[in-house]
Structures are given as C-alpha cells and as structure tokens.
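Predict the assembly for these two chains.
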Amino acid sequence: METWTFGFEGKRGPERLILRRRSGPFDPGAARSISLATEAALIRATGARGAPVPPVRHICDQADGLGEAYVMGRVDGETLGKRIVSDPRFDAVRGDLAHQCGRVLAQVHATPPPEGVVLKTIDGVSELDRYEEVYLSTGASRPILELAFQYLRNHLPEAAEPVLLHGDFRNGNLMFDPQAGLVAVLDWELSHIGDPAEDLGWICTKSWRFGRPDRPVGGFGDYADLLAGYAAAGGRPIELSRVRFWQMLGSLRWGVICLNMYMSWANGTDRSVERPMIGRRASETEADLIALLEEGL
Amino acid sequence: MITHPRAEELVEAVAEWIDQIRPGLDPRNAFLGRVAVNALATVGRELAKGAAAEATAVARMSEVLGRSSNYDDLSGELCARIRAGSLTVETPGLLRALSEMAVAQLAIDQPSYG
C-alpha cells in the first residue's frame, strides 16, 4: 500500500490531499483486507453518521491511470501512541479520549454497510480458527498461546447481533488533536462485519498501552469511560467480560502475528531485520495472556 | 567461555558502531539501524540471562509434567497436553509455572515492556 501526500490547486483553492494507492495486485477472495473503493465507501458512510473521518475527495477509476486508489483530505493530528499516552500536550484532553472512542465506535457500529459493499463476517470462533491455523503453520511450540486458544474456545460469548466494524481500531490508526481529541479514524482496510465488542476489545489490548498498563483503553483511559461513551452515543449495552474476551483474543492474535512476522523472515519472504525482532515481541503477549488467564474475564 | 573479548563485548562493540554511523543514514536505514541495535541488546541479554531462564523453564515444566527432559521435549509435551485438554487453567501449578517462564522471557526480549 502506498500513501502519498500532495498539494492541489483547484476550484476550491489550495488543498492538502492524501493519495492512497495499492502498489501490488489485490485478490478479494484471499485477502483479509477490503478493496480501496470499499474502504472509501465506508469512510463516507461512517462520516455521514457523524464519525470523525478524513473527507474522501475522489475514488479513482480506470481513466485516472493510477490503478486501485482514492484521494482524501489531509487531517492534522498525532497518531503516535507514545505521544498520546505521555506527551504533556495531550494532558488536557486525555481524560476524555476513552469516552470519545466509545462514542465514535457506536457511530461506526450503527452505520449500515453501503449498498453494493460486500464485507466478510467474522465471529469469535472463525477468528480463533484462523489464527490457530496460522499459529500451527509456524511450527512454534508456545504453551501459553495454546492455553489461550483453549481458554477462549471455552469462554466464547453468546452470539451478538453483527454490526459494521472498523476492524483495526487502536493507537496508530487513530488521529488525535491536543484540543479536540479524536479527529480522524484511519486505516479501514480490515473492516468487516462482526461482534461490536471486537472493536472495543482491540483498543484495550495491552500491546497498545505504550507504558501505561494501568489505563486499559489505549494507555489513556478506563473501561468504564469507553463503555459509557458507547452507551451515550446509542450503542447497545456491552458487558465488560465480553470486551475482555476480545481484548484477550487481541493479545493472542498479535502474538501469532509476531510469530508469523518472524516466519516471513525465516522463509525468505522479507529479510528485513525488523521481522525477526517483531517475532521476539510474541513474549509480551504471553505475559499479557498469562495475566488475563490468572484474572479471568 | 572465551574472554578478551567476551561474546557480550563483541555484541556491544557492533551496537556502538551502528549507533555511531546512524546519524549519516537515510531515514529508513537509520530506523533499521535502531532495530539492529535493539536486536543486539536482546542478544546481549540472552547471553547474560538465557541459560538461567531456560533452566527455570525446564524445572517448572518438569514439575507440571512429572518427568525430566530437555526444553524442546517438555515444551512440546506441554503444548500437546494443553491441546488435548488434559491440562487447563485449573491444573494446579500450571499458570504459576507459565507465568514464571513468561516473566523470564520478557526480561530478555523487552525488559521495558509494561
């Protein structure tokens, strides 16, 4: 995926824009991610429901000669988790961020998928199946991950009415402003249909807390504020244990992804030094998973 | 082990050299240089603490499984028995053993994680 920033002088005067463009081929059947046209359609649809998203200016077609791509307005703000969690510039707004995240997720979840958009449906079982398959394919022998798979399968929440999910709602994909707070939800490529608690649990997954493990929501807020914001914006009540199920599945998923990053180095797909180092991050998820297994959901 | 220099010192020397040349690198390579320095720091910690961490893990896994063997064998059996459902979070001592192993590994991989 390519992201280009550029200036544009048009009828509206000078504008700062972003081009998102796929550099390689896209196989909608095999890919976990959605097409860029779908991504743009979801940004427009959730924006129309009040969610803070970048304005989509143009969805490219064949005549543009850019392949699969779209253009959006550039939004200013901070995406680096460490700064949002600890930079004094965010001190004034930090206390409100978890509530804001809850409100925005309720807006996303209330958005009917736009007509013609086909999204995958994922639930707890299919997610566990998927990542267990990846885990087994790595050939790694990790008792804590095994125990987490077993535990989560034995603690599956009852089926929830499936809704539109962002699918990757966490620090890094959220843009924050020191005054306004959450100003843009970015990176919609993992959007799908599923359990609303999945999005709430993912931002509580401990790997995105950047040195503030005491603040479960992204290192900046508490569960209660996230859930209160969600309810305040009309979201259906969600039990904390359900959020923690998905939080735990989030740690497990990230642990398996870390192992798979190492595999991509080991099998020669990507020989960057970054890959095996991310592989060593699997142990952070093991420490987090053991703590959750000890506490229970 | 060989001294003058020790393996830890070789690792330290290479990391220092990467840090010295990093300011002159393009942004992508400067980033990868930082990752490489972190990788060497991990190797340094594993050289210092790896043997003790593995010995602890072998001891804890042996207690849970009731037999002695090497790390790979014990870890493999632990996985197989969890997979088969004969070991669970209710199994006495299992969580405590795994927790101790996780803490020791994290101290090597990412001591600042929290």
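Chain B has a mean pLDDT of 97. Helices of chain B lie at 7-21, 27-65, 71-84, 94-109.
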